[in-house]
Amino acid sequence: MSILIKSVLLNGKEVDVFIQGSIIKKIGKNLGIDRSSTHIISGKDKAIFPSFFNVHTHAAMTLLRGYADDMELHTWLNDYIWPFERKLTPEDVYWGTKLACLEMIKTGTTFFCDMYWHVDAIAHAVDEMGMRAALSSAYVDFEDPKKGDLFKKKNKKFFDSLPNVDKSRIKFIMGPHAIYTVSRDSLIWIRDFAKERKLYINIHLAETKKERDDCLKIRGLTPVRYLEEIGFLSNKCICAHVIWVDEQEMDILKQREVNIAHVPASNMKLCSGSFKFDKVLKKGLLIGLGTDGCASNNNLDMLEEMKIAALRAKMGSNDPTCAKSKDIFKCATQNGARMFQINGGEIKEGMVADCILVDLNHPQMIPHHNLISNLVYSANGDCVVTTICNGKILMQDRRVKGEEEIIKKNKAIAASILKRM
Ligand SMILES: [Zn+2]
Fold first, then answer.
1. What is the separation of C-alpha 296 from the centre of its chain, rounded to a whole number of angstroms?
2. How far is the CA of 28 from the centre of ligand 1 (A)?
3. What is the rounded distance in angstroms from the CA atom of residue 171 to the CA atom of residue 311?
4. Max intra-chain CA distance, the chain
5. Rounded CA separation 157/193 (Å)
6. Ligand 1 mean position to 62 CA, how many Å?
7. Same fold, 2-50+356-403 and 52-339
8. For residue 257, how many other CB atoms are within 10 A of its CB?
9. I want to staple 119 with a disulfide (CB 3.0 to 4.6 A). Which of 36, 44, 137, 292 is the partner?
10. Which of 201, 110, 125 is nearest to 163 (CA)?
11. How far is the CA of 117 from the centre of ligand 1 (A)?
């Protein structure tokens, strides 16, 4: 089925957008399209934009939303998050991921990069919801060689027979959690395995001062220099946080063409530190935007995240002219697509049909002086009325297929996990 979006606003002009298969086939005035096999959407009072690319999250942490707030990162992780996660079954993670997908679709996101447990269950949830994703299984060995060997075997087995899902939308990548939870030996193994299989690597890096100080004490190097020393860094690395880095480390990251996942809400909530948005951008590093998981945000709304990113950057550099709305919007859309070599993130002929329609009559979108400014600073995910991914409509007029069941299941599952604690 093809889709024709009639008379929709694109960059200030009213046009028709024709989607065929998974691609934006044609954009123009009054397109003469055979309507017999075409689904027509009215673009009246709507504007079309690329959908969002959330480059760092832990989707199924929706189940932990509101479970543990207002704590220091390491207490939060060790005493609350990890004990809760040890009780999660693949079934729980499947439904938690579906809830995350539902929330993302409702707020205009069609791609996310994930790291979590039970990746098989996650893959099936994403496949059924019709989204695009890069999924990694969390790899942690806590310096225990036995655990390291187990994870190596598990990963090899997993990549030898990947889940049966739509591989054009779903990529599988490596997910070493961080330098303080994964041994040097395992990091080197991951480096080689990823190179051999041409896989992306998703890792948390230089998130807290404690991580940097401990690394200096144990390895005699800062986290970025430590990874550089073992030849880990490349353009296939997606590094989340990257807060505790100096100028020279930014140069190393630039030289290795490392991709940065900036997660401002999580960094602020956990007081991890201040990401140097302006400096990192000026170095020419590719910055994408992520929400992190729902235990540290506590939602997956990329519109809200854009505003927080802009305000955080201005506050951090004491410069209101930095982190302009167009730069932030680019981080949330085309930069995320570029990182994962997806031909998307922009509304152009030949690109993948991953897009949203925004309600131009939504109070937060009025008036129309600057729609990008409205999206970054004013609106939230509610202004999105239609979400399309890979040429398929995932939400129309704010309705997503199966949403009632997802809500019902998640309420029941969250209650049942507490009983298992
Ligand atoms: Zn994370």
1. 14
2. 41
3. 32
4. 68
5. 12
6. 13
7. no
8. 14
9. 137
10. 125
11. 13
What are the residue boundaries of the structural domains of the chain, listed by start? 2-50+356-403, 52-339
CATH 3.20.20.140 is the classification of domain 52-339: yes
Domain 2-50+356-403 sits in CATH 3.30.450.30:
no
Contact 224, 253 (CB under 8 A): yes
Q: What is the pTM of this model?
A: 0.97
Q: How far is the CA of 292 from the centre of ligand 1 (A)?
A: 5
Could you identify the residue written with the tokens 């490596």?
Answer: 174
pLDDT (tens, 9 = 90+) of the chain, 421 residues, equals: 799 999 999 999 999 999 999 999 999 998 877 777 799 999 999 999 999 999 999 999 999 999 999 998 788 889 999 899 999 999 999 999 999 999 999 999 999 999 999 999 999 999 999 999 999 999 999 999 999 999 999 999 999 999 999 999 999 999 999 999 999 999 999 999 999 999 999 999 999 999 999 999 999 999 999 999 999 999 999 999 999 999 999 999 999 999 999 999 999 999 999 999 999 999 999 999 999 999 999 999 999 999 999 999 999 999 999 999 999 999 999 999 999 999 999 999 999 999 999 999 999 999 999 999 999 999 999 999 999 999 999 999 999 999 999 999 999 999 999 998 8
C-alpha span between 77 and 181 (Å, rounded): 12
Distance 57 CA to ligand 1 centre (A): 6
